[in-house]
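Researcher: I'm preparing a figure for a lab meeting and need a structural model of a single chain. I don't have an experimental structure, so a prediction will have to do for now. The sequence is pasted below. Please return the structure as tokens so I can convert it later.
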Amino acid sequence: MLRATPLGYGDNPAMPYPRIARRRGWQGEVLLHVSVSESGRVVSADIEQSSGYGILDDTAIQQVSGWRFRPASRHGVPRPDTVLVPVHFQLHSP
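Model: Understood. Here is the structure written out token by token.
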């Protein structure tokens, strides 16, 4: 069985960094539990582990909910799946 995987960032929009979080120096990782349909669309995305900042968590859910995935398959037949998707929000030094 193959697991569902996100399509590349050329196919999915890049994760925006919320302006207020950037100004305040907020960083973190959100771990999302994502249900993916057999067509590769997101059915639901829920927080498995919070970043500690609601705005980062909300941004991750909103963006990943619009992503497309390469669907899971068993014996070459697409099927629904659930996957954990880490989303990193990290500020880089100039």
